[in-house]
Amino acid sequence: MVLGTDQGTTISLNRGLTWSSWYNQPTAQFYHVTTDNQFPYAVYGTQQDSGSIAVLSRTDHGQITPRDWFLPGDSESGYMVVDPNDPTSFI
C-alpha cells in the first residue's frame, strides 16, 4: 500500500501493519524560498503542513545531508524573511 501525504510518501508491505519513513524521501511543497547573506548561505523555506526548514548551501563534508538541515522557526505555508544583518532573526 502507498500513502501520499503533504510530507511525502510512505509504503506498507504488510497491509498497513508498519509503514516506511517519509524522511528517506526528501519531498516537500514549498511556498516561498529565501536565502541569507552568510557564507555559505542558507536556504530557508516554508512548507505545506510541515513547518519551516532551512539547509546550508555548502558543507565541509562533501555533500549536503539531513544533518545540515535546521529548523529556523515556526512559520508554515507563508512568507519568511531573514534579516540580512542577523540570520538568526526573522522580519
Briefly characterize the structure.
This protein has 91 residues and is an all-beta fold.
Structure description:
The chain is mostly beta strands. The protein has strands spanning 2-5, 8-11, 30-35, 42-47, 51-56, 69-70, 82-83, 86-90. The strands form three sheets. The protein has a four-stranded antiparallel beta sheet with strand order 3-4-5-6, with no helix packed on it. The protein has a two-stranded antiparallel sheet with strand order 1-2. Strand 7 (82-83) and strand 8 form a beta hairpin. The radius of gyration is 16 Å and the shape is elongated. The mean pLDDT is 81.
How are the elements arranged and paired?
Blueprint lengths: L1 E4 L2 E4 L18 E6 L6 E6 L3 E6 L12 E2 L11 E2 L2 E5 L1
Antiparallel strand pairs: 1-2, 3-4, 4-5, 5-6, 7-8
Strand runs, count: 8
Spell the H/E element sequence: EEEEEEEE
Radius of gyration: 16 Å
Level of helix content? under 10%
Described by strand count, sense and barrel closure, the largest sheet is: 4 strands, antiparallel
Total of helices: 0
Portion in beta strands: 35-45%
Structural class category: mainly beta
Task: Please give a handful of descriptors for the protein shown.
single chain; 91 residues; mainly beta; four-stranded antiparallel β-sheet; two-stranded antiparallel ribbon; 0% helix; elongated
